[in-house]
Specification:
This protein is of the alpha+beta class and 311 residues long. It is 41% helix and 21% strand.
């Protein structure tokens, strides 16, 4: 049976065992009757160029306990604060996402879905294709298949790594993201030759899609330093109109709504988890006044910052 510990990463066309790299952080969790997952973060050697990969692994054995479906990913291009106590890319020193003390990393993510959890999606339904066979564990042979690491999948992986929820809310959020990840992973079984299709024709170019993805990264880096769409378009070298249309199609939201949502989620984290004052959070997020911050926060969460602190 294939195990997540068997994962290899490719550096300059040379296979590299994970044991050869420095492990920075580990997160392992099991949601009973659903999925067990682990997220391992390694230091990326600047001399190596790692290829991002995704894989679906179907484990079928005659014994029920040996049946499972795994999604495995190796993703690079992330930079995180080198402080051990930092989490989700948020600096423990400043409380901000912006941080000068960062290291490049590679994340290895493993998600193992149980047969009990997966079978509920096809219970009582006619088996009509391979994805149905896999979910019902009617396919009698183990196999592995490469998964397309499209932008949608990358967004979900980023959400799983960088969210700020805890306890019960974390379970709800993680479950929702895992179902989305499972959906995208199973698409490789529907049509191996299927490619992403976009209404905006310019998004057919991988180079243009990379520009849109880069714009999203820049927005996340400027949570405390507001940036205009004009400035953003210049940084990624794309027309403002194309940037707005492309962003909406790729990520399902406008640039403004995405940016505001990320800022307010970060504000919730700073207020509720870090215990910062409303004044401090307002300043960290670049608001000119506390009242402007309070208005934006209530519009997003339905609560005033002070009401959140009283909970």
């Amino acid at each position: 049976m294939f195990q997540s510990s068997d994962i290899l990463v490719i550096a300059q066309n040379r296979p590299v065992m994970l044991g050869e790299m420095e492990l920075l952080t580990t997160m392992e969790k099991q949601i009973p009757g659903s999925v067990e997952y682990s997220i391992l973060r390694y230091r990326l050697n600047p001399q190596n160029t790692i290829e991002d990969t995704g894989m679906l692994v179907y484990n079928y054995q005659s014994k029920a306990k040996d049946k499972s479906l795994e999604l495995l990913f190796c993703v690079t291009g992330n930079a995180y604060c080198s402080e051990k106590k930092c989490g989700g890319g948020i600096c423990a020193k400043t409380g901000s996402i912006s941080c000068s003390d960062k290291v490049n990393t590679i994340d290895v993510l493993s998600f193992k879905f149980s047969s009990t959890y997966l079978s509920q999606f096809v219970k009582g339904k006619q088996i009509v294709n391979k994805s149905d066979e896999v979910l019902a564990f009617k396919h009698r042979t183990s196999f592995s298949k490469m998964v397309n690491l499209c932008n949608r999948t990358r967004v979900v992986l980023d959400n799983l790594v960088n969210h700020t929820y805890s306890e019960t809310l974390e379970n709800i959020y993680v479950n929702s993201q895992l179902q989305t990840l499972l959906l995208y992973g199973l698409e490789c079984l529907i049509d191996e030759k299927a490619e992403e299709s976009f209404a905006c024709k310019f998004l057919a170019s991988e180079a243009e899609r990379e520009k849109i993805s880069k714009a999203r990264e820049i927005l996340l880096q400027h949570i405390g330093e507001p940036i205009t769409i004009k400035e953003l378009s210049r940084k990624v070298a794309i027309n403002e109109c194309y940037l707005k249309k492309g962003f909406k199609e790729m990520f399902g939201t406008t640039i403004f709504d995405f940016y505001q949502g990320q800022r307010m989620e970060h504000a919730k984290y700073l207020l509720y988890e870090k215990g910062l004052s409303v004044t401090d959070v307002s300043a960290l997020l670049g608001y000119s006044s506390i009242s402007h911050f309070s208005t934006a926060f209530k519009k997003h969460t339905g609560l005033k910052p002070c009401e959140l602190l009283m909970r």
